[in-house]
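Structure in, sequence out. Go:
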């Protein structure tokens, strides 16, 4: 049975929600590490990893649907992939800023 528009939207929102939560936890981990609170940093990484896995599973389900469907889902997944690449660039920017700040602190 082909995926419905509603199911596609639900899967996309799960992907967005879990990915966003994971990213927030990862950035929170860096903030904890900056203050030397490595226990909380590790806990935030663990939470992020759990949310990332949920996002990954939602994405995997969409890929599986694409493989077994002729509904044109590929075009939408291509757009999702393109947006993913944009998000990865944003994440790289955020991490770069954080890492630069850490190096500045090490130089003092």
């Amino acid at each position: 049975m082909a995926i419905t528009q509603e199911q596609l939207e639900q899967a996309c929102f799960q992907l967005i929600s879990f990915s966003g939560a994971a990213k927030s936890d990862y950035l929170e981990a860096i903030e904890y590490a900056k203050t030397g609170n490595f226990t909380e940093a590790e806990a935030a990484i663990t939470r992020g990893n759990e949310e990332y896995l949920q996002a990954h599973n939602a994405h995997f389900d969409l890929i599986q649907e694409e493989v077994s469907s002729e509904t044109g889902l590929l075009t939408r997944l291509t757009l999702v992939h393109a947006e993913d690449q944009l998000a990865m660039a944003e994440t790289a920017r955020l991490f770069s800023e954080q890492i630069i700040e850490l190096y500045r602190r090490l130089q003092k």
